[in-house]
What does this fold into?
Amino acid sequence: MSQYRYSTLAVHAGQHPDPQTGAVNVPVYLSSTFELTGIGTDRGWDYSRAGNPTRDRLETALAALEGGFSGHAFASGMAAIAGLVAPLRAGDHIVCSHNVYAGTVRLFNQFIAHYGIAIEYVDTSCPDAVAAAIRPTTKLVHIETPSNPTMVLSDIRAIAEIAHAKGIEVSVDNTFMSPALQSPIALGADIVMHSTTKYLNGHSDGIGGALIGSKPEHKERFLLVQKAVGAVLGPFDCYLVLRGIRTMPLRIKQHEENGRAVAEYLSTHSKVTRLAYPGLKCHPQYELALRQQKGFGSMLSFDIGARAAAGRFLGALKIFTNAESLGGVESLASHSATTTHAALSDEERAAAGITDGMIRLSIGIEDKEDLIADLEQALAAV
It folds into this structure.
């Protein structure tokens, strides 16, 4: 279906009517095992860890949306990251963005490093820093752009050119942008990772993750990881993501309209400092965002000075919910230092630019005037 435009793909890729019944919604195959047609033969499925018809439909949709060769659905975003690095071996080296989600750092430092794999964190917003970090043993450059929650961008095309010149693969965490607003494979990335929990699902009612590979060998690699490790997405959660994908183009338009409006409002507020939203012309990477992204999204962060002020602000909100996660239809606000990045030490948070006064917002699809009014009254309480 690659000849179709994005909104058409979102509705139809992997979501054709069921050939047996004509159902226009993808059936949920709640079966752990499947009847075999003989010795060593089947109808395409034998055991749901290895493959499930509902999961197949989602994986087809994911590959189409990201312009990849194959999609692979995992039980969570972190399971997808674990699947990404599972094929690496002792002695291999990973270059990773220094300001990635703290869960990725926790996985790498507390588990992956114990297998003899070296992880080096660098400022990937500077391609020269990536080039300087590459070793003969480097097998993967993993970047998160925009970064969580500081909204720092990394130049995917420039990093891919540097890595590919050395025979190294590049993976991109595309969760914040979604396939609607950023296409890493088209920019040169080899692998795209998602927490499907966020914009792909869009309704805060399911946990999931995904890897999308760009080459046939990626399909073989990640199919083996899924079957051997087993952290696959269940069929009902696959159905929920498929349902979310169908409305994602419309949701993202409203998310972004609201995100821009909220960012403009906060940019002039006297109590707000260090506002991070690449859609503002004052953002130092605004031009890169224009080149690399198809929009600016609805994630932003700002500083209001101190932890106590952040607590008062969060406590005063009425529409925004003080909660972790992002990308759902409802607006969320969170204190990054004690939620998403609580696993880091004070020194690590400081190095990543995460302060005690930082608030991260995930702007939902409510009326933007109501959202701005809620922020205004909450800031007045600070």
User: Anything to note?
Assistant: The first strand starts at residue 70 and ends at 74. The two ends are 51 Å apart (CA to CA).
